[in-house]
Design brief:
The structure is a homotetramer. By secondary structure, chain A is mainly α. Chain A contains nine helices and no strands. In chain A, α3 packs antiparallel against α5.
Chain lengths: ~200, ~200, ~200, ~200
């Protein structure tokens, strides 16, 4: 049902509403991450000790906020280049958004269990799925000619390769040590610069 | 109070705000579905077992996310075809949205209780109510001449008939077996294609 | 700081953002009402009994959803008639919105405690405060000349008088019987029509 | 990556989406503050006593709602003066928003623990961090020439100095008495007027 011909007059408005639904969802998902932090409910005397145990949850919160923020920036750039939508794009977008909205669950697991591999593995798989779904959105928009004339989605193969390497590598590492798995994610930043040089691609 | 004559100059703006309230509500309702998933809070050693018990909740989450997404697409298509609103439309829309916003409750019931008929029956009744309310919105817009000139709401009788058949049928089946009731919902997809052929209607 | 002279060029945009903040808040407050319903977490065999105890919460949910919806309609009509904003309007609006956002608390109390006067009294006071704050917004907009030329806020004195009578009367009645207090709220609808005839005012 | 030259044609739209993401986040953060209030779940006979214990939570709610509202007003004024965005501004904005979205946590601590210094100190540090991040946003927008021609961010050095003095002073005071620390925050209002006279600056 791709609208490859003339764009109907209300397409701009429709795209605007998809934008607005997606934006709303991104900002709500980002804000709901705060609910993954269990505010201590202890006798007043034990408060200081209980506050220490908030630190892993806070770290998980900031990691997930950055994830939502970065995916939102990419998604927003992408939607800004579309000239039309079709039903497959809308469906793919909903699937992508359903995973964005689910992010508080792996975040809460990550913040609550320090010494298990499972939360790190689940979180890494989650990021890989989100990244693959965004790629699928880009791919469909290109092949169904939904981009506005003269627009191209910045490939950012360096960024994608960096995210994939760092998060895929963290899965086996998490079984050695959950902390080691999480540290591995930080590698995405330097790796991106390395890959950008190798590929000669411009980072957005 | 239907404005059947000339549309006052601020109607576009007003419709825009109803759109924005509705969109906001849809995206928040979709995102709040994540709260229907109880993230396990168990000793670290029992984590893997507890994660297995997340699966029914995750399934219920994705079903409800699809429900919100599909109703949002229909609602958004509908509002895009209006030229004006009236107070009955606003009221009907609020009633419809109050059921959309309530969806986390049947979703949580569905994910938490595997072996009872009640959650499946409640969920199916919920979908039938949502579907009937959307039909009532369409019906009122048509009879009060609120549609923009030349616009018609795609009937999608095939889709409605498929949803009604599958969800109504699931109610007696849930008393035989809750799982059987849920599987029955999947029938909505093939049924829609069958009905579309029978009715010769185009599916949106 | 009322801008009574020429409206600066970016006022429309600013008003748009206040609109958007307010709309967002209204739709989130409406959606968060669902969190005031405690989804039963009982052994599977006790589910049917536990579902019965959901009914007062559901009733409270629909009452509060209607409250948010009606206040939103009035607020939205009001903002559609403004030509400019000033800092006092922004402050009053924030105070009003802080009470809208607080509505889940009296809603949860109302749904959870059936046989106490306190929740009914708190809820009624809440509605009176919201109604007074909205009146204060209207009053300030008029006296600071913030309305667009030729625009007037529909007085709806009948509606206000009906809400005030029904909710003020419910406070002493709640001490006789909490249920009687709640039934009294329903009087707002017929009272509005009576007052509308008496005052000769048009209901919006 | 500052776009100091000609503004690309889609910058307005992009800024609009950043606005919309930020606005959404502010209104959701404001609304989620209600979740920091623990609605009492006690036997019906103990309700009146339990309602008294809601008061500190309500106070913390209104303080935080005012904080979100005031920061939103400043942020909204600021974004209204931008002609373009760059990636550093987007990143700083996300960091700022991640702290806005985190506000329910210190709010819940403040409302739950009456007699400890830690919640007051955490809350004060939080406000200082938010204030510093907003200043950093302003500073970057100025130095990267992102402001629209002829626009200047109102310095409000008086306001900033008042907030900094009152909240920084409250930290040592909280160790003397948590209540004294909180009362100290109220000083921000009179201090602002004093500083405004001293600096001769106009308060927004």
């Amino acid at each position: 049902m791709a609208e490859t011909g003339a764009v109907p007059p209300d397409t701009g408005r429709r795209l605007g509403r998809v934008d607005s639904f997606s934006d709303g969802l991104f900002s709500i998902a980002a804000t709901l991450l705060v609910l993954s932090i269990d505010v201590p409910n202890v006798p007043e005397g034990d408060l200081n000790g209980a506050l220490d145990s908030l630190l892993p949850s806070l770290l998980a919160y900031f990691i997930s906020f950055a994830v939502v923020g970065l995916f939102w920036l990419r998604h927003h750039e992408f939607f800004g280049r579309l000239r039309a939508s079709d039903s497959r794009l809308a469906t793919l977008n909903l699937v992508f958004l359903s995973f964005i909205a689910l992010l508080p669950v792996p975040t809460e697991l990550l913040g609550r269990y320090d010494n298990s591999a499972a939360p790190v593995v689940i979180y890494a798989v989650f990021i890989l799925v989100l990244s693959a779904l965004l790629r699928a959105l880009f791919h469909h928009a290109r092949s169904a000619h939904l981009l506005a004339p003269g627009q191209e989605i910045p490939a950012d193969n360096a960024g994608a390769a960096a995210v994939w390497s760092a998060f895929a590598l963290s899965i086996p590492l998490a079984f050695v040590s959950p902390d080691l798995g999480m540290y591995c994610w930080i590698l995405a930043w330097p790796l991106r610069m390395v890959f950008a040089r190798v590929f000669g691609a411009s980072a957005p």
